[in-house]
Amino acid sequence: MLKIMTIRAVLFDLDNTLTHRDQSVAAYAEHLASYYQQHLNTVDVAHIKSIVNRIDNGGYPKKELLTYPSIGASVADALQQELEWQQPVDFDELTQFWFQKFGQFAVAMNGALELLKQLKQQQYKLAVVSNGGHATRLNILNGLGFAPYFDAVISSELVGISKPKPEIFQHTSQKLKVDPEACLFVGDHPVNDIYGAQQAGMQAVLLEGFHPLNDQQQTNIRHKIQQLDQLWPYLK
Q1: Domain 9-20+108-234: homologous superfamily in CATH
Q2: Residues spanned by CATH 3.40.50.1000 within the chain?
Q3: Do 15 and 182 form a contact (C-beta atoms < 8 A)?
Q4: Is the distance from CB of 186 to CB of 198 less than 8 angstroms?
Q5: What are the angstrom distances between the C-alpha of 232 and each of 19, 90, 122, 129, 210?
Q6: Which of 22, 81, 145, 168 has a CA that sits 20 to 30 A from residue 15's CA?
Q7: C-alpha distance from residue 216 to each of 191, 213, 221 (Å)
Q8: Helix, strand or coil for residue 127?
Q9: Which residue, 163, 169, 165, 195, is CA-closest to 181?
């Protein structure tokens, strides 16, 4: 496998790369149903999950479905309006419940922790580059026990730049003190992750299965894996 430069840093997207977003939503919905069961006339985990999934949309919310600037507040608004509450729960409490609990109940992608351990042992620099609120990124990484493995956690909120703009990738490589050409980016989104990283001069590998690819993307994205433990050939 040809490389311009030996890989010295591995950068990851967060949702549907290091974490499984749908499974995380399911775990969050179960916890919310259990926590608020005495407040609800009917406890329906499937209904709660469907509400959260509609707003969250796999971490890529549709603007027309957001009633507030954040996913957490929009989810809280929908839950408040659509669930059958016996004892109403304050909107701010439901919003904070998302920000405090979603990260704690995040579900790791298969093989993620083992991969991070092995990469760290082999002295690769590691970073997360993710669109979204910084506190939520840290909450998820801390909840999974992933935070100690990373040399940098870069969010769009922190730096004021969102993927796929190449500047957020370049900012991360500068933070790591590694040239972009020596960075390998791993993500699930063909545009935000793969195109953005490549525009910044990085090599990129797509974790397939979360976003459909059009014909052009199928042709242009040459490096694809189906699970994280298939990443190793791109590092040797």
Answers
A1: HAD superfamily/HAD-like (3.40.50.1000)
A2: 9-20+108-234
A3: no
A4: no
A5: 19, 48, 12, 20, 21
A6: 81
A7: 12, 8, 8
A8: strand
A9: 169
The label of the residue with tokens 């405090």 reads 100
d(CA 63, CA 192): 17
* Distance between CA atoms of residues 162 and 140, nearest Å: 19
pLDDT mean for each 10 residues of the chain (236 residues): 74 96 96 97 96 92 93 96 95 95 93 97 97 90 95 96 97 97 96 95 91 78 92 89
> Residue 19 carries which DSSP code?
B
- pLDDT tens digits for range 91-132: 999 999 999 999 889 999 999 999 999 999 999 999 999 998
Beta 125-130 vs 224-225: how paired, if at all? Answer: unpaired
